[in-house]
Amino acid sequence: MGADLTTQTTPARSAGLVLEHSRALRLFTLFILYVGQGMPIGLFWFAIPAWMAVNGAPAADVGSVAALTALPWSLKLVNGFIMDRYTFLPMGRRRVWIIGAQGVMIAFLVIAALIDPGVTDVAILGGIGFAVNMATTFQDVAVDGLAVDIMSEDERARGSGMMFGGQSIGIATATAICGFVIEDFGAPAAFLIVAAIILALCVYIAAFRERDGEQLMPWSGGASHPRNLAIQLEAWWPLLKSTFLSMGKLVSLLWLPVLFGRGILYGGFTGATPLIGANYGGWDTSEIASLTATAGLVAGVLCMTLGGWLGDRYGAKRIAIMWCVLQLTMIAAMYLGQQFWGNPVVFMAFVYSWIAMDMLLTVAALPISMRLCDPKVAATQFTIYMAVSNFGISFGAFMLGKTDAMGGLSSIFLVVGAGIVVAMSLLLLVKYPRRPEYYAKQTQAAMMFERVGKGGGPLPERSAAS
Predict the structure, then answer these.
(1) Which of 32, 217, 216, 201 is nearest to 106 (CA)?
(2) pLDDT at 193 over 70
(3) Under the phi-then-psi rule, with left for phi > 0, alpha for psi from -120 to 50, and beta for the rest, what region is 22?
(4) What is the DSSP string of 267-330?
(5) Which residues, 6+ apart, have CB-to-CB distance to 414 below 8 Å?
(6) pTM above 0.70, yes or no
(7) Nearest of 427, 368, 375, 355 to residue 157 by alpha carbon
(8) Does the pLDDT of residue 258 top 50, yes or no?
(9) CA 43 to chain centre
């Protein structure tokens, strides 16, 4: 797709829904898009593994399906390069990719319903999970790029809470609905329900513009926004060069292990949850689905309220360190208390805590990832960060399948704990970028001290309120 070269110095104000006009619309749109992409995650990462575990599938089979499902999320860095290089600018930088990705998701879900795989069809389930999640990653990258493009700095902490809160709610909703539907009506019904929800979301995406003057659809009136034309890279070399220079900074390289460590936790515990519930507690598919769904819903609400507020109030880095400490406490308790895994209270506490703290850590870390991004290659660079996290998810799921050789299911807690220790150590030692107002205050203070050093007079007294 090539970019339209039509330019307007001052685009006419468009009627209807335009993201650049409204903070509330931006936050709601990011929220609802993340709800939508949470639906296939809930289906393939929680409901399907729970269904397999309850029906006797071994850890190796559950881990294989989970790893194939997670693999597209590790490969999605390619998506960012494609989206930053090719887009249809008259419809905005990201919206055409979102609509296209949703169409592909719907098509594969319908195909999956027609195939109707069983619990023992590991290759088919893994292939379906891979295909649907590959399409989901294109939506994810497009939405992340949209967030970096359209949100102002003062919206990012709250926006990250809305985004991942929405994803948690989407995951919870899909897990609950699909868990019950699979048990009572079979997997095809669950595939079709998720497809219908994504179709409704696709209609909403077709109803708004990113910026003034853009087209709603390819056949409607409108033109490319000048801001997008100014930053669009029309050749591969400038795109690759800008990405390499931005990613090659030391602070950026030291951010990657933090993201990888967070991913190990999600990948390891996503598969471990149904195995612990089914094998130690005797939980069935609907019970595990209901528990993980409720935990995801609680996590989503916490992300939208507590997560964004804590980031605004105390800073992303401090809050990320706090969540790492709490995660390590939970991991140690579960590893040392294996004899209590069959206790429903212990199992429920584990599920609620790991899902909530994983999402809250992600919300805390997201503004740091955004600050590290070069706007010219925002989708590519942000996608690389998220892909590293998803490599961690695939690694965690892969290691879950190796637990028998490592001494049993409890060994996954050692693997996850090691990843979180590395992440927390870097958060403690590395100076990651802060909000612009922090650097403004630092510059102001330096100028004031320089003035004093040159005999320019004393520093002004601090007021009681400062």
Answers:
(1) 201
(2) yes
(3) beta
(4) HHHHHHHHHHHHHHS---HHHHHHHHHHHHHHHHHHIIIIIHHHHHHH-HHHHHHHHHHHHHHH
(5) 335
(6) no
(7) 368
(8) yes
(9) 16
Place of tokens 């289906």: 43
- Four-way CATH pick for 17-436: 1.20.1250.20, 3.40.50.880, 3.40.50.2300, 1.10.760.10: 1.20.1250.20
- pLDDT digit string, tens, across residues 137-182: 899 888 887 887 777 667 766 777 788 788 878 888 888 888 888 8
Single-letter amino acid, residue 73 = W
What are the b/e assignments for 99-131, b being 16+ CB within 10 Å? bbbbebbbebbeebbeeebebeebeebbbbbbb
For residue 86, the SS3 value is: coil
Q: Which residues have a Cβ under 8 Å from the Cβ of 255 and sit 6 or more positions away?
A: 368, 369, 372, 385, 426, 430, 432
Domain ranges of the chain: 17-436
Name the 3-class secondary structure at 209.
strand
Is the Cβ–Cβ distance between 145 and 94 less than 8 Å?
Answer: yes
Q: What is the DSSP letter of 434?
A: -
Q: Is residue 81 within 8 Å of residue 380, measured between CB atoms? A: yes
Q: Over the stretch 23-38, which tens digit does the pLDDT of each residue have?
A: 888 888 888 999 998 9
Residues 238 and 376: their CA atoms lie apart, in Å, by: 10
In this structure, what DSSP letter does residue 82 have? H
How many other CB atoms are found less than 10 A from the CB of residue 98? Answer: 26
What would the pLDDT profile of 64-101 be if each residue is shown by its tens digit?
888 888 888 777 777 777 877 777 677 777 888 899 99
Burial degree of 405 (CB within 10 A; 0-12, 13-18, 19+): exposed
